[in-house]
Amino acid sequence: MQEYFPQGLAIDESFCNRTNEKKALRISIEGNEHLVLVAPRRHGKTSLLAKVLEENDFPGISMDFFFVLTQAEVVKTMSEGVSKIITQLLPKSLKACKQLINTITALNPKLTFNLLGQKLEISTRQTTEKTISELLLALDQFAAKVKKSCVVILDEFQQIAELKENHAIEAAIRHAVERSQYVSYIFCGSKRHLLNEMFSDKSRPLYHLCDLMTIERIDSLAYHDFINQRAKKKWKKILSTDPLEEITHLTENHPYYVNALCRRLWHADKLPDLADVRTMWNDYVNQQGVWITDDLSRLSLNRRKVLTALAIQTTNEPQGQEFSNRVGLPPSTIKKCLDDLQKLDVIYVKSESYYHVLDPAVAYFIRQHAV
Ligand SMILES: Nc1ncnc2c1ncn2[C@@H]1O[C@H](COP(=O)(O)OP(=O)(O)OP(=O)(O)O)[C@@H](O)[C@H]1O
Ligand SMILES: [Mg+2]
């Protein structure tokens, strides 16, 4: 049932809803605006962006900075990305291609042909931060020549903040992005704390370069419809209300976990009932127990105490007496733990200032095992 509820990107029919987010992204790209898209891990950032590019036929490329460890690797990732996107922008005719390529001679363009069409490779002699702005500016010039707007997605962008030369790289990117007329940039990532610092700290080069967009979990109604469409395909029937609501209740609408649970339920020959959903979730979370325990063991004792209390019951008054009694720590210590847990993306604040454990499997596991 991989295609119904994939572990990897949600594409085609496995993509649920996100209508408003898709529209907002389309409008922003069409207006050649730039965005920072932030959401916790496995919330569907990459799937959403891929969907928007596909549905709107925007020439676009996603550069992944997750494994980038040095400035030279940033330049390499960017030059590969720029090569790919310029290839998408190339006109069909060879003559026109050759003429256009003359506009980017600084990037040592090499045009090759095969059965699939033409392909452009560029190479940069240097790996300085100046090369980064040159690459991005050249892309904009090229897009301007062919009069086509395009999108550059810089995924896991917070990784740049971890590099030694981060300031210079961020400044080089700002230089190019500010001048861009045909390229729309989307900076994407999951470490909210690092991204916030990059884009909202006045002393950082990327300060207020673009608008912030966050994506929340998919709402229950949309999910119920979506899950039932898949049930009809598999069993020619829809799920009754209780098991259906239990799926979104247990997984807290977290797309990765909805898929993980449903993928397992959809292996069965019969339509799942409430007990099937509960048993499957329990088995699944317990299978992940080694990883969860390992993650929890990295937290200090006080942070674990606060996390456990939140997993058992959320609160919007974490510094009140009731919560302090429950955790067994003074409000000042609790405040410090909450800040740290938020920075680590282990907890998040939802509507009406309620503090929640971010990962529903972790929260469930704690509830099952807390003494
Ligand atoms: N709109 C959606 N409909 C259904 N499933 C989705 C949707 N978006 C994401 N998913 C599922 O959620 C999981 C995470 O998706 P994706 O990799 O796009 O998220 P991400 O935020 O980019 O993750 P990461 O933080 O690891 O980069 C996948 O299992 C994917 O199939
Ligand atoms: Mg991703």
Task: Please explain how this structure is put together.
There is one protein chain. The protein has 371 residues and is of the alpha/beta class. It has 3 domains: 18-214, Rossmann fold (3-Layer(aba) Sandwich); 220-287; 296-369, Arc Repressor Mutant, subunit A (Orthogonal Bundle), CATH 1.10.10. It is built from 16 helices and 9 strands. It has a 5-stranded parallel sheet, with helices on both faces. The chain has a two-stranded antiparallel sheet with strand order 3-4. A two-stranded antiparallel ribbon has the order 8-9. α10 packs across α11 and α13 crosses α15. The longest helix is centred in the N-terminal third of the chain and has 19 residues, at 71-89. It is globular, with a radius of gyration of 24 Å. It starts with 18 loop residues before the first helix and ends with a helix. The mean pLDDT is 92. Magnesium ion binds next to α2. Residues 45-46, 155 line the site of magnesium ion (MG).
Summarize, please.
This protein has 371 residues and is of the alpha/beta class.
